[in-house]
Design brief:
It is a single chain. With 972 residues, this protein is α+β, with helices and mostly antiparallel strands. Helices cover 54% and strands 8% of the residues. The protein is built from 39 helices and 15 strands. The strands form 5 sheets. Strands 1-2-3-4 form a 4-stranded antiparallel sheet, with no helix packed on it. A 4-stranded antiparallel sheet has the order 5-6-7-8, with no helix packed on it. Strands 9-10-11 form a 3-stranded antiparallel sheet, with no helix packed on it. Helix 14 runs antiparallel to helix 15.
């Protein structure tokens, strides 16, 4: 089979560009097929008109260039059959220079240059997946894809160019406006201007703008720049309002109109443009003298302790670094609505305070008194009356209080402002019937209750109540429902009741907040001083926290002073006139608070919360046992037994139980106190710290047992009427705890003592928990103390009793080693006596022979040479015969040791009888403290007195005594 060869068909050349020295590397055709870009080896890019066959433009200096075309449709929608207008741009990527340049295809001018990596790749995408068509187009000359640049780091970047860059600058309004916008922005950014030149430049540019979009951008730029003075923004905004075309957006005109009115108000107040004083109205507004007296007392107390002063705001328009700029003032408002200007929902607290201060401080302090003009400006600015009241209250409660404050004057001015603002509101919002509640005033009361400075909020509440009453009276007078003589009478309405309740609560919280703001100081700090974050005490905070809020806050305050808890109890039990407590300022402050909160601040509630504060702080740093000991000291001073029992149980379950359980498991596993690394790994404490902790735990459980055995009758806890609901207070939770199972509590006390003995003396005992306690008892360890379980102490088997006996023997021996003797021969045995008492206590709990351990103690004391201590304990022994046998071995060992070290051994050994010598040979080689022969004779005398005469040990004791006497005679 053969294939026939067909001759090639010659193609006709439509046009060509002949250059023998030039070699093209790439040819890219535009999406509309009208242009082509050719890259060559001479570093040129040729833009070719493919219709006419001519080179339109040559770009030089682009070696190894990569080209692409972009189509950008016009933003304005067109009804033309071919669709919207389309602009074409040429992209040239130069790897050698590391730049990406964009050119207008028709004009040939460069639009912009971007920096790119030298190892990027520009892709001209003019096709999609074969056979796949996801979009439709009215024209086959419109490209459905775009151009992308792939960086060397793998990022794909899409190149997008706005449509207006393709238009001629002279014939396009939007392009010209953009140029003016950039010009003004650059001028403002340079900072090379004064207020007059900035005003002229800004106004001139605003007059030349044609498009609404750029006008809006100019306004946004002016109001967001903190360096633009208010009069510049005002003049530009007024121009846009006065010269707005009918076809321009209504929202833009509303925006500029609201901004201009706000700035007129701003400039009027900031420039102190005072009009006619309202003297007649000023003299007619008076407050009750009793209210003024009470407030002045609180003010005096507040001035001494006020630690939260907000910085004063000074507005100077000649200074470029404004303390509070016009842009910040405008940023507080939402001025896009037609009928009303409101505060933004989430305006910053600092901005809100400064805005309120700029507008209202001159009228509060009396610098300005033209309330009528202010009222007109408020109405003209269309600011919501609720927001104005919010600003007034915000400034009033957060302003700084100082010693030179004229309280009466500022309160009168505040009242004038209240009345002025109320006249700008509708009567339906501020006036209601006697049995109704105003939503307007409810919002104000909520704001005052939430304030973190309740004393200024108290003043504001009294003044707002007065203003509300006056407005109601005026409304009723207009309706002819009351006469002029009845104006001063207060009608008992739902509103007045709510105001009175709020004022009463704020009085109590004001006193609490003022005292809590002071530093708690105690003359002699008996407990550690805790550090706490400052709490802003407000009525809302107190009500939300519930009935235990006051106790908790005051206890936290007291814990920062380290006050002795016994002083709190004595202060409650002792008359105030006693001299011992007059000088303690912290107790005077506490007594002042007790007048308002008698139930929340009784000693039991305070000490319970104080103990809890120390326990919580110890939990953060469990190595600091001083805080745990402080908590126990506070618990011990609680007078209410029911609360005291519950607090012991809460403290154990919450803070001590977990550490004790992990310590118990660790020691039971190892059989002794492990090394520091293992201790820290399991418990977070070092080996030495575990010993201290177990000692504190033993004392805690001992005190817990004493409290559990104390009889108490339940008494209902009382709280102030300020709370209707809220969280459960600590004292109530403690009082609701079930009675602890004494046997279970006693079991944990025994375990704690065992662990303490092991850690203190380094005693080794295999699995002490399992070998010293019955299996049935081990299963209930670290369960709830309120659990109803039976713990039996009389079912121990012989193996456990033997283990217990050996354990106590080890502890007694180790405790005797703690006895020391100074140079003068004085013996210090306090620690041994303490631990011996604990050993005997455990022996009684475990039903062991107590006399056995006493005999063992005396024997060990003689072995270690503490004869004087032993002689004091001999009368307490019941079975002296057995004691005598034990002491006989000690005496024989002493004699053997004496003979071994004696220089005249042959003569001394002759003084011993064969029977005594044979007995000495049967003894073990256990160490015995050396002693003179006189002490051996004295010990032999005690032995003879203890042992019965019919026993062989009695005869050996006599022989020992005779030998001691003989050796003594030979020695002398």
């Amino acid at each position: 089979m053969s294939l026939s060869t067909h001759p090639a068909d010659a193609m006709g050349c439509r046009f060509g560009l002949c250059d023998l020295r030039r070699t093209a590397t790439d040819v890219i055709l535009s999406p509309d097929k009208m242009f082509a870009a050719a890259c060559d080896t001479l570093g040129r890019v040729l833009l070719v008109d493919s219709i006419r066959g001519v080179v339109v433009k040559i770009f030089k200096g682009y070696r190894d260039a990569q080209c692409s075309f972009i189509q950008v449709p016009d933003e304005k929608k067109s009804k033309h059959r071919h669709g919207n207008k389309v602009a074409h741009f040429l992209l040239i990527y130069s790897p050698k220079k590391g730049t990406l340049e964009i050119f207008s295809l028709l004009q040939g001018s460069k639009i912009c240059t971007f920096t790119a990596s030298k190892f990027s790749r520009l892709f001209n995408i003019n096709y999609g997946l074969m056979g796949f068509n996801s979009t439709t187009s009215k024209s086959r000359y419109v490209c459905q894809w775009t151009s992308v640049l792939i960086d060397n780091d793998g990022q794909i970047k899409e190149i997008m160019v706005p449509y207006h860059f393709a238009l001629a600058e002279k014939n396009n309004k939007r392009s010209r406006d953009i140029h003016l916008y950039k010009k003004l922005r650059h001028y403002i950014k340079s900072g090379d201007y004064n207020e007059e030149t900035l005003l002229k430049e800004s106004y001139d540019i605003c007059t030349e703008l044609k498009t609404l979009e750029i006008k809006s951008q100019i306004v946004d730029m002016l109001i967001s720049n903190r360096n633009i003075p208010a009069n510049v923004i005002l003049k530009c905004a007024k121009y846009f309002v006065e010269n707005a075309a009918d076809d321009e957006g209504i929202n833009f005109r509303i925006l500029c109109d609201n901004i201009s009115h706000l700035l007129e108000l701003y400039l009027f107040v900031a420039n102190k443009q005072n009009g006619d004083n309202d003297e007649t109205e000023n003299s007619s507004l008076k407050l009750d003298e009793k209210d003024m007296t009470n407030l002045q007392k609180l003010l005096d107390l507040s001035i001494d302790s006020d630690s939260k002063e907000l910085p004063e705001v000074h507005v100077r328009f000649s200074d470029k670094n404004l303390a509070f700029s016009t842009s910040e003032f405008l940023s507080a408002f939402d001025f896009t609505n037609v009928e009303i200007v409101t505060l933004k929902d989430k305006v910053d607290d600092g901005i809100l305070f400064k805005t309120s201060e700029v507008l209202l401080k001159p009228y509060i302090t009396g610098e300005l008194s033209s309330f009528a003009q202010l009222e007109n400006l408020f109405i003209k600015a269309k600011i919501d009356t609720k927001n104005l009241f919010c600003m007034l209250v915000n400034y009033w409660v957060n302003r700084s209080l100082h010693i030179n404050l004229n309280l009466e004057k500022e309160m009168n001015n505040f009242l004038h402002l209240c009345y002025t603002l109320l006249r700008t509101a509708s009567k339906e919002d501020t006036v209601c019937n006697y049995n109704q509640v105003s939503t307007f005033w409810s919002k104000i009361r909520e704001t005052l209750a939430n304030s973190s400075r309740p004393f200024p909020a108290l003043m504001a509440a009294i003044l707002c109540k007065t203003a509300a009453h006056k407005i109601n009276i005026e409304k009723q007078m207009e309706d002819s429902s009351i006469s002029v003589e009845e104006e001063s009478m207060e009608v008992l309405s739902q509103e007045s009741v709510l105001w009175s309740l709020l004022i009463g609560k704020l009085e109590d919280i004001s006193l609490l907040n003022i005292i809590m703001s002071t530093k708690a100081l105690a003359k002699d700090a008996a407990l550690p001083k805790l550090q706490h974050d400052k709490i802003d005490v407000s009525l809302k905070y107190i009500l939300e926290k519930g009935r235990g809020a006051v106790s908790e806050i005051v206890a936290r305050w007291l814990s920062s002073s380290g006050i002795d808890p016994q002083l709190i109890v004595l202060n409650e039990m002792t008359e105030k006139e006693e001299e011992n407590f007059e000088s303690e300022k912290i107790l005077d402050q506490l007594n002042l608070l007790k007048e308002q909160f008698p139930y929340s601040l009784n000693s039991s509630a305070l000490l319970a919360n104080l103990a809890w504060e120390y326990a919580l702080d110890w939990q953060k740093e469990i190595q600091d046992f001083s805080k745990l000991e402080a908590a126990m000291k506070c618990l011990g001073c609680i007078q209410n037994v029911q609360v005291k029992q519950g607090m012991y149980q809460l403290l154990w379950n919450t803070h001590l139980k977990i550490v004790n359980e992990s310590t118990c498991k660790l020691i039971n596993k190892v059989g002794k106190l492990p090394k520091e690394r293992l201790c820290r790994q399991d418990t977070g404490l070092s080996d030495a710290q575990i010993t201290i902790f177990l000692g504190i735990t033993s004392d805690f459980l001992d005190a817990f047992m004493d409290v559990t055995q104390t009889a108490c009758s339940p008494h209902p806890l009382q709280f102030e009427n300020i709370w209707e609901n809220g969280g459960q207070p600590l004292v109530e939770l403690a009082a609701q705890q079930k009675q602890a199972n004494y046997d279970l509590l006693h079991l944990h006390y025994q375990l704690s003592m065992v662990l303490q003995m092991i850690t203190t003396f380094g005693v080794k005992h295999s699995k002490p928990v399992n070998n010293l306690f019955e299996a049935s008892v081990v299963n209930v360890l670290f369960t709830d103390f309120a659990r109803n379980v039976e713990v039996s102490w009389n079912k121990s088997d012989i193996k456990i009793n033997a283990s217990r006996t050996q354990f106590l023997f080890k502890v007694i021996s180790a405790s005797i080693e703690s006895i020391t003797i100074n140079e003068s021969g004085k013996i210090y045995s306090t620690q041994h006596v303490t631990w011996m008492a604990k050993c005997l206590s455990l022996a009684r709990f475990w039903n062991l022979d107590v006399d056995l351990f006493k005999r063992y103690q005396i024997t060990k004391l003689y072995t270690n040479g503490f004869d004087s201590l032993s002689e004091e304990l001999i009368p307490s022994i019941n079975d002296r015969n057995e004691l005598g046998k034990n002491l006989l071995m000690v005496g024989a060992k002493r004699m053997s040791q004496y003979l071994t070290k004696s220089p005249d051994f042959s003569n001394n050994i002759a003084a011993l009888s064969p029977a005594l010598t044979n007995y000495m040979d049967t003894l073990d080689d256990e160490w015995c403290a050396p002693c003179p022969v006189e002490k051996i004779a004295a010990l032999a005398t005690y032995i003879i007195q203890c042992i019965n005469e019919d026993q062989i040990e009695h005869r050996l004791a006599q022989l020992l005594l005779e030998a001691s006497v003989t050796i003594g005679e030979l020695k002398s």
